[in-house]
Prior knowledge:
By secondary structure, the protein is mainly alpha-helical. It folds into two domains: 3-96, Orthogonal Bundle (Rna Polymerase Sigma Factor, Chain: A); 101-196, Arc Repressor Mutant, subunit A, CATH 1.10.10.10. It is built from eleven helices and no strands. Helix 2 packs across helix 4.
Amino acid sequence: MTSDDEATWVRRLKQGDEAAFERLIDTYYGAMLRLARSLCPDPATAEDVVQETWFAILSAIARFEGRSTLKTWIFAILTNQARKRAAKDRRFAAWLLGDTTEDEAIAGPDCATAQAAMSPWPLDAEAKVHRDQVLTIVQEAIENLPSNQRTVVILRDIEGLEPAEVCELLKITDGNQRVLLHRGRVSIRNTADQALNPNPEMSR
């Protein structure tokens, strides 16, 4: 979508155009639910956060100034809604504080393990299972990540946000963002490798 197209869309939203809001829901509901599920402890809470976000969007759209993309603005509102819910429920404390340690080295872009985590899986591994099964393995691996890693992976690798946008949304440093992304990618890669080749010794 071009900036002109988005500007037209936003203008229609500000005018209360019902079709424009329906398009907004169709376009972003799935992405919002994925993000909410990465931030919330259970599906029901995630659904509540998404609904609260829609109400917040309706209330705030008139004040949208276009300093970020509409998608980033929506994600920021959703993240804030999740934080409000977290403040009411101390079970979210672990997510708010994060689980990184200060003495762990940051995996930079030149790190060999980071490159391995981002590289495609071998074709012979993919040939062992149907593509749908591979996708299921990856989806389950993402779901099983620690919540802060899962959120960063979803925002970067699924929703396609830039590092700076993720840092702004989650209020974390670039270094922390890179660590979480690296850990998440490595964990997903390891899980997938184990699922695709559970008994490497027997295949020799």
